[in-house]
Amino acid sequence: MRMNRMILALGVVVGLALSACGTTSGPTKIDGDRWKVVDKNYLEAAKEANAHCKSLGQNTLKVISRKAGEDSVEVIYQCAKE
Fold first, then answer.
1. Per residue, what are the HEC states of 24-81?
2. pTM score, two decimals?
3. For the chain, how big is the Rg over CA atoms in Å?
4. Class of domain 23-80
């Protein structure tokens, strides 16, 4: 019985550690006024990009491209004051 609890606990710890792995990145400047963000899904990536634009004092988010990977989405965008 004790061995089953240890295996279960180990499984939970490994699962939590793997779920925290790099599917999310903060905004990364690509060049000029283009930025990139990677997150677990498009909605989360768009929210992060929008929050980044607002933190720069710009209220318009223009998505240039988006790529879906196996477990993440990459969004390339620009911010504007329009």
1. CCCCEEEECCEEEEEECCHHHHHHHHHHHHHHCCCCEEEEEEEEECCCCEEEEEEEEC
2. 0.68
3. 18
4. mainly beta
